[in-house]
What we know:
With 231 residues, the chain is an alpha/beta fold. Helix content is 41%, strand content 21%. It has 2 domains: 2-124, 3-Layer(aba) Sandwich (Rossmann fold), CATH 3.40.50; 127-224, Winged helix-like DNA-binding domain superfamily/Winged helix DNA-binding domain (Arc Repressor Mutant, subunit A), CATH 1.10.10.10. It has helices at 10-22, 33-42, 59-68, 84-92, 105-120, 152-162, 171-179, 189-205, and strands spanning 2-6, 26-30, 47-51, 75-79, 97-100, 126-129, 132-135, 141-143, 146-148, 168-170, 214-217, 221-224. The strands form 3 sheets. It has a 5-stranded parallel β-sheet, sandwiched between helices. The chain has a 4-stranded antiparallel β-sheet with strand order 6-7-8-9. A 3-stranded antiparallel β-sheet has the order 10-12-11. Calcium ion binds at residues 8-9, 51, 53-54. Calcium ion is lined by residues 8-9, 51, 53-54.
Amino acid sequence: MNILLIEDEQRIADFVCAGFREQNFVVEHCLDGNDGYTRASQGAYDVIVLDIMLPGRDGLSILKGLRQIGNATPVILLTARNELGDRIDGLNLGADDYLAKPFFVEELIARIHAMLRRISGERQNVLAVGNLKLDRITREVAWAGQSVDLTGREFNLIEYLMRSPGRVFTRTQILEHVWGYDFDPSTNVVDVCIQRIRKKISSLDKGELEASPIESVRGVGYRFHKPGEGA
Ligand code: CA
C-alpha cells in the first residue's frame, strides 16, 4: 500500500510514518502544501493523508484541486479540534473520511483499512493488461493463466508500473514508490528486481508469448507494455 502523507508538523509525521511502516505501508511524506499537491497529482497512491493547515497550499485547496483534475485517490483529512466547518467543507469537497487531532496512529490505520474496504466494493481490484493479471487483494499474479510467484517487493513494483500502462517511470520514481525511502540513486536494486520479475515470467512462457511486459526505456527507466503499441 502506497500512502502520501502531507503534514507540516514533523512530530506528528514521525509517529504516523513509523506506524505506517510497521504495517508495511510504503509512505512518502511532505511538509509543504505546494509540494504535496504536486506529488499527489502526479503519483499513484492508494491513500492520501492530508492535514488542513499547511504552509504553501492548504489541505482543502489541495483536495479541491485533485478532485477537479479527476484524481479520485481516497483522502483522509487530519483536522484540528475546532475545525468543524473545515470537516464539513472537506467532506463536501470529496474527502473520504477525517480524523481529529490528537489521534492514535492505530486509529488512523483502522480508518484507512475501513475506508479501503468500503471503496474496494466500488473499485476494481483486479488489474489485467495484456497477458498479465494481478489481484490486489489476494496478491496473486498470473501470466497467460499461469501463476507467477512474486515477492512482496516484486509485486509492488509491477503493480506500480501496471497501473499506468505505457507511462515511463524513472528509476528514482520507482525507488521512491516501491522502496519508500531514500536509497542512493546510483543503486541498481530497481534493475535487479526487474530482471528477477522478467526471469520469472519468461520461465513460464518459453518464448511463445510476447516479450516481457516490462520494457526498458534507454536512459530514462521502465514502463509497462501497453498492448497495441509496438515493443
Ligand atoms: Ca498543520
